[in-house]
Design brief:
Chain B: GO terms for molecular function: transcription coregulator activity. Chain B: It comes from Elaeis guineensis var. tenera. The complex is a heterodimer. Chain A is mainly alpha-helical. Chain A is built from 20 helices and no strands. The relative contact order of chain A is 0.08. Chain B is of the alpha+beta class. Chain B has a single domain, classed as Beta Barrel (Hypothetical Protein Pfu-838710-001). In chain B, 24% of the residues lie in helices and 38% in strands. Chain B has five helices and nine strands. An eight-stranded antiparallel β-barrel of chain B has the order 1-5-4-3-2-6-7-9. In chain B, strand 3 and strand 4 form a beta hairpin. In chain B, helix 1 packs across helix 5. The relative contact order of chain B is 0.24. Classes of the chains: A mainly alpha, B alpha+beta. Chains A and B meet through helix 7, helix 8, helix 12, helix 13 and helix 18 of A and strand 1, strand 2, strand 4, strand 5 and helix 3 of B.
């Protein structure tokens, strides 16, 4: 028997559920289309191949059995069972596959012979296979439950209604799924496309906070305490304790206003009380300590950064030979820094400072720098000059002696007050007094002339030269202005560059420098050399002078 | 000169911003710390700096100048630094680069520097206490990343009573020293490093505010969870 599974054009040959309610049934398809559909469902070629393979396998097994029977050997039952199960499996699969499409096929025998005569009528019968029939019945039962007693058109309509309901339900479900996909970012296989956004209120708050923070850090907005409320707390943090406190109590560092008056009365020796405090800095009570004794001056000064060589220096090797030595880098850099800042010392201060004709000691390099800067700024009408000493050594500052000079050791505003003030300062001061008058006039004019020139290194050199041209007491330690000294040139150049070359960041400096030219008097151009002039030895001064006068 | 960018990051105090995370407190700052640790390979250093900003009065010069004194309180002995911030680079070229290039002068100083500046006539303009951590490393340039909370002091010098200026937001600052010859390379190094931090924070020039990054929460969560998984 040959079964030909061909495309059956008319599915109507098979029993179907009532067409009335069964809209799901495919309409009678055309031959080609059905063939294509069937082709997807069941590849007939493959079925044929499998059937042939199965047939061959079975025949092999039968041959093996024949051989066993003939040879009268007991077969290995395990192998045979295995082969048998394989064959069984294959048959089962083929039958299952055909069952899926059995509705599309009909057996069409080509001829009748003894082989297929018995089975042919069964094959040709249009009755469903029992299983298929039972399945169909069950489905029909399910569909028409409750409708069987109605007329047919009513049944049709009810079934149509059911179909519509199912359709709407399906559409709603589809919509929900699509929405959920979008909400969870699953849609269309592109991954999460939804970026979590902050709502506007939060974003605005954060923006505001950020502006506050940036302004505070970069510009200090919102951090300024009103001057009324600025008073030092009772307990300073540890890093500020020794920085801000003085022996005589605390002052308001944020406010300069009251300081001057405060310190004025404490200038006991200041007979020339022109303007009250001299070179006052806020809160510096050191100014107010008029201790005439050398030791008294250096009450709380601590000299941190510079080494403090022992006094006296007049006879020390340092003083003898090293008037030109460059100071330690510490001192030098410090002084350089300070010089840069010194450019901005108010002229008022300068005037005041110079108005005090008192000898001062300023052992610290900071003070050194200050006085030099102040001198430089002092061109504008000061008649005093200052000498400074290198920290750690005898240092004396002279203000231009006026008629009444009172020799007083006084500290400048620098916090670095050295303890080791010269022992014989007072004596020297007395000696100096007489000598100061020597060069008061000459010095003034010299400096004035020097100051009139352009502010460059030349001025400093000139000034230093003029300074050194004065005769000085052997014991006086002067600020060696040896700008011309070979050893000093380098640092002086540096300082000069710093002072005069700072155009980018410090316009104030330039202005200050320019202002200096107009003064009637020049301060020392000792700034560059102040670093180096810590070697006072008066003994050497003449030597230097000679050297510098080359 | 230095190249500098700043950004902000939310810190733990920002509880009301965390509401949408169902109460899970995301430590953005900690996440940033983890990220930086991975990127830099150096341990973090604590930072506690008392910054005093001094301004010169009008009688000290034509233009008031400003100088900042920084006292490092993290070390057992405080160390002081003086710092002057100059003008920033301007021009069309400066507009195009995303970092700010400005002149800076900085130096270590002795601890009497405050007294010294007061003596000169400088006055305290404002002070700030910065607390946080810093990473210093080399990556094309010597880069320093500082994450700090800026605190203000209600009373003068009272560093112990400092309160944050913005409780929920901390400042992230990335700086790298540069010279006039090589600043373009330093700018490139800083910019490329900033890209690594893009998921967590926006970085911009100090004057420009950018807000926070919307993906910060997610990025922080992933950073924190990764680290949690790896600690055995």
């Amino acid at each position: 028997m040959e079964s030909t599974g061909g495309a059956v054009p008319n599915q109507g040959q098979q029993p179907q559920p009532p067409a009335a309610g069964d809209a799901a049934v495919q309409p009678p398809p055309k031959a080609e289309r059905l063939n294509a559909v069937l082709q997807q469902q069941l590849n007939l070629e493959s079925v044929k191949t499998r059937a042939i393979g199965l047939y061959k396998a079975i025949s092999r097994i039968l041959e093996d059995f024949d051989a066993y029977a003939r040879s009268n050997t007991t077969p290995k039952w395990q192998d045979i069972l295995g082969q048998f199960s394989m064959v069984n499996m294959e048959l089962f699969n083929i039958v299952e596959d055909i069952k899926k499409v059995s509705k599309a096929f009909v057996v069409c025998p080509k001829n009748v012979n003894a082989e297929n005569a018995a089975i042919l009528p069964v094959m040709l019968s249009s009755k469903l296979l029992p299983e298929i029939e039972a399945e169909d019945n069950a489905k029909r039962e399910q569909l028409l439950y409750g409708l069987t007693n109605l007329p047919v058109h009513m049944q049709i309509e009810k079934l149509k209604g059911r179909i519509d309901m199912i359709e709407t339900a399906c559409e709603a479900a589809e919509k929900v799924i699509a929405d959920a996909r979008k909400a969870y970012g699953l849609g269309s296989r592109q991954g999460p496309t939804l970026v979590p956004t902050l709502d506007k209120v939060q974003a605005a708050k954060i923006q505001e906070q950020e502006n506050l923070l940036r302004a505070a850090v970069n510009f200090g907005e919102g951090l300024r305490i009103h001057t009324d409320q600025r008073h030092l707390p009772s307990s300073l943090p540890s890093h500020l304790v020794d920085v801000l406190t003085f022996g005589d109590g605390t002052q308001n560092f944020g406010d300069n206003s009251g300081v001057y008056t405060k310190n004025t009365p404490s200038f006991s020796s200041n007979t020339v009380s022109t303007q009250g405090a001299v070179m006052q800095t806020p809160g510096t009570q050191l100014m107010g300590r008029p201790a005439p004794s050398p030791s008294g001056v250096t009450g709380t000064a601590s000299f941190d950064n510079a080494s403090t060589p022992p006094l006296p220096y007049a006879n020390s090797p340092r003083s003898s030979t090293n008037m030109m030595n460059t100071p330690s880098p510490q001192q030098q850099t410090q002084q350089q820094q300070q010089r840069q800042k010194m450019m901005q010392i108010p002229q008022q201060h300068q005037q005041q400072l110079h108005a005090q004709q008192q000898l001062r000691q300023s052992p610290s390099p900071g003070v050194l720098g200050q006085s030099t800067m102040s001198q430089l700024n002092d061109i504008q009408g000061q008649t005093q000059q200052k000498f400074q000493q290198v920290p750690g050594q005898h240092q004396m500052q002279y203000s231009q002696p006026l008629s009444q000079q009172q020799f007083q050791n006084r500290q400048l505003q620098s916090p670095h007050m050295q303890h080791n003030i010269a022992q014989n300062q007072i004596n020297q001061g007395n000696q100096l007094r007489s000598h100061l008058s020597q060069f008061s006039g000459a010095m003034n004019s010299a400096l004035f002339n020097a100051a009139q020139s352009s502010p460059n290194s030349q001025m400093l050199t000139n000034m230093s030269a003029t300074m050194q041209s004065q005769s000085l007491l052997p014991r006086m330690q002067f600020y060696n202005m040896a700008g011309g000294h070979p050893q000093r040139n380098h640092p002086s150049q540096i300082i000069n560059d710093q002072m005069f070359g700072m155009n980018a960041s410090n316009p104030a400096n330039m202005v200050a420098m320019q202002q200096q030219q107009h003064g009637p008097q020049g301060g020392f151009g000792t700034i560059p050399t102040s670093n180096q002039n810590l070697q006072p030895g008066m003994v050497n001064f003449p030597q230097q002078r000679q050297q510098n006068q080359q | 000169m230095e190249c500098v960018v700043q950004g902000i990051i939310e810190s733990q105090n920002n509880s009301h911003y965390m509401r949408h995370n169902n109460g899970v407190r995301l430590q953005h700052v900690e996440a940033l710390q983890i990220l930086l640790q991975g990127l830099c390979g150096v341990p973090k250093e604590r930072v506690r700096v008392h910054e005093l900003c001094l301004k010169s009065g009008p009688n000290l010069g034509v233009v008031p100048s400003e100088v900042r004194l920084l006292c490092d309180l993290a070390q057992p002995t405080p160390s002081w630094t003086v710092r002057h911030v100059g003008g920033a680079m301007r021009g069309a070229g400066a507009e195009q680069i995303s970092v700010l290039v400005r002149t800076i002068v900085e130096s270590k100083v002795g601890h009497n520097v405050l007294r010294f500046f007061y003596s000169l006539g400088y006055k305290l303009d404002h002070e700030l206490l910065k607390e946080g951590f810093v990473f210093r490393f080399q990556r094309g340039a010597q880069i320093t990343v500082t994450v700090t909370s800026a605190n203000k002091m209600p009373k003068l010098y009272a560093t112990d009573e400092a309160v944050p200026v913005t409780p929920g937001i901390q400042l992230v600052e990335i700086t790298a020293p540069a010279a006039a010859e090589n600043y373009s390379e330093v700018v490139a190094a800083v910019s490329s490093f900033c890209e690594y931090l893009a998921p967590l924070l926006h970085l911009s020039k100090p004057g420009v505010s950018m807000g926070i990054v919307p993906t910060a929460a997610a990025a922080a969560a992933s950073l924190m969870s990764n680290s949690g998984a790896k600690t055995l």
